[in-house]
TrEMBL record:
Keyword match Acyltransferase: no
Pfam families the record matches: SMC_ScpB (PF04079)
Keywords: Cell cycle, Cell division, Chromosome partition, Cytoplasm
Membrane spanning stretches: none
Gene3D superfamilies in UniProt: Winged helix-like DNA-binding domain superfamily/Winged helix DNA-binding domain
Protein name: SMC-Scp complex subunit ScpB
Species of origin: Leifsonia stereocauli
Keyword Mitochondrion: no
Organism lineage string: Bacteria, Bacillati, Actinomycetota, Actinomycetes, Micrococcales
Length: 207
């Protein structure tokens, strides 16, 4: 009897999910994650082979795009997409809705970054590695408290201390890339056209 129960339990444990069930499980996980999830991690979470999870992800991507397996339109294209970023998968708002969602978040989220924090974050993103002194020189204001805020939010990190002066150099984190929905800093937009003929503090390559 014991052997029979054990065998039955094993069969239940390894039985494949019903059609569409794996996609629903993955969708439920991806809806609540704040960071991109790797395929192996997802496969472990749902207890299925990596190949099955990869196929299910492809199905979800097509479904959100309103396409079938052959790339033919089947339904409504969702306002969000399943995107691979930083070696993992996460649900993002589609680019065409960025302005709408940004406006909503900025007016509804009381913990949003201040204008000073956003400006400081931009300087660090484009000029890293960079010290507080260099940031302050570019912005012409004291940035100590703003840098502390960005550190506490996990958007920037201490990279290393200058060998001669001991000044700490800062850079952005993977969290910032995740929040922006890009894979690397190379995907940041070029800012040269926005400088109106002046590039004070952004000497060198300013994209």
């Amino acid at each position: 009897m014991t052997d029979a129960v054990t065998e039955a339990d094993t069969d239940v444990a390894v039985a494949p999910p019903s059609p569409g069930e794996l996609e629903r499980r993955l969708e439920a996980i991806l809806m609540v994650t704040d960071e991109p999830q790797g395929v192996i991690h997802l496969a472990t979470a749902v207890g299925r082979p990596v190949a099955e999870v990869q196929a299910a992800i492809a199905t979800l991507v097509a479904d959100y795009d309103g396409l079938d397996g052959d790339g033919e339109p089947t339904g409504i294209r969702r306002g969000f997409e399943l995107r691979e970023v930083g070696g993992g998968w996460r649900i993002y708002v589609r680019p065409e809705h960025d302005a709408l969602v940004t406006d909503f978040v900025l007016t509804q989220n009381p913990t949003r970054l201040s204008q000073a924090a956003l400006e400081t974050l931009a300087v660090i993103a484009y000029k890293q590695p960079i010290t507080r002194g260099a940031i302050a020189s570019i912005r012409a204001v004291n940035v100590d408290s703003v840098v502390r805020t960005l550190l506490s939010r996990g958007l920037v990190t201490e990279l290393f201390a200058d060998a001669e002066t001991g000044a700490i150099n800062y850079g952005t984190t993977e969290l910032l890339l995740t929040q922006l929905g890009v894979n690397s800093l190379d995907e940041l937009p070029h800012i040269s056209p926005l400088l109106e003929g002046g590039n004070e503090g952004f000497d060198g390559d300013i994209r």
